[in-house]
Structure formats: structure tokens, C-alpha cells
Design a protein that fits this description.
By secondary structure, the chain is an alpha+beta fold. The protein has two domains: about 100 residues, 3-Layer(aba) Sandwich (Aminopeptidase), CATH 3.40.630.30; about 50 residues. Helices cover about 30% and strands about 30% of the residues. Strands 1-2-3-4-5-7-6 form a seven-stranded mixed sheet, sandwiched between helices. The longest helix has 12 residues. The two termini are about 20 Å apart.
């Protein structure tokens, strides 16, 4: 299930962030900023692996933050839950809200992310030199209706 972020989700989001981006993890202040500035554009993926449907047994396994026009600021899914379609569902939520138009920066060396976004219809728009300080970013875009 995908829903809006609430402040009580912060600890889980920080865990996911630290696991996904150990060298450049956002801190809690950044997440709270986006939650305040863009409350409709900070979504979490909640998984109920127990099959009970009880929310207290559910776990936040991913998140996505994006600007209203579809630019993805950050997305991450817990490693144990990757390759199950949750990241795809999060990006599709953005595409639905932004009429099929989205963009994202990806590390030039991140083959997994490049393949993921290409599969979702994104293509390379340009290279941004030294975007990550030590590495270039690829600006990938998706245009058109879904």
C-alpha cells in the first residue's frame, strides 16, 4: 500500500536511507522539510508481510519524494524488498500525478538504477558533470501519458 508520509514514519525512512545511500544519506531535517513543503509528494510504501492486514504489523519498506511537476528527488526500497515491484509502483504513483512526465538524476555508475528507469520508459536527456561531487549524473526523463 502506498500512502502519504507521516512524521511517525521518520525513523523507518532514516533506516532505509542509510541502507540505500550509506555515503550520502539525507538526514531527518531534510525529510521533514520535504514533508512540510510537499506533503502530497512524499509517499511511503507499507508492506504487510504477515497477511493479517493489521497496520501495527506492517512495515515501511520504501519511499519516494518528488516535486509536483514529476521531478524525483529521492527513492529507496529496503534491500530485502527489492525486485518485488515496489519501486515501480512508487514511480508509477509519480507518473499518475504528473501526467506521465517525470525526471530523475542517476549516478553515471549506477547500472541498476539506469536499467530500472529505462524499463519504465525514461531516457537519457543530458549528463550533468560532477553533480555528485566525484561523479557525473545522468538526467533521465520520461514524457507522455501512462
Amino acid at each position: 500500500m502506498i500512502r502519504k508520509f507521516t512524521n511517525s514514519d521518520l525513523d523507518a525512512i532514516l533506516e532505509i536511507e542509510a541502507e540505500a545511500f550509506p555515503k550520502s544519506a539525507y538526514n531527518g531535517f531534510i525529510f521533514l522539510y520535504y514533508a512540510e513543503a510537499y506533503p502530497d509528494n512524499f509517499l511511503v510504501y507499507v508492506c504487510d508481510d504477515t497477511g493479517t492486514g493489521l497496520s501495527e504489523l506492517s512495515e515501511i519498506v520504501g519511499y519516494i519524494i518528488f516535486y509536483p511537476q514529476g521531478h524525483i528527488v529521492s527513492i529507496a526500497v529496503r534491500s530485502a524488498y527489492r525486485r518485488r515491484g515496489m519501486g515501480t509502483e512508487l514511480v508509477e504513483a509519480v507518473l499518475k500525478r504528473a501526467k506521465g512526465i517525470a525526471s530523475v538524476e542517476v549516478r553515471a555508475s549506477n547500472e541498476v538504477a539506469k536499467t530500472f528507469y529505462k524499463r519504465l520508459g525514461f531516457s537519457l536527456r543530458t549528463v550533468i558533470p560532477r553533480y555528485y561531487g566525484d561523479e557525473d549524473a545522468l538526467l533521465m526523463v520520461r514524457t507522455g501519458m501512462i
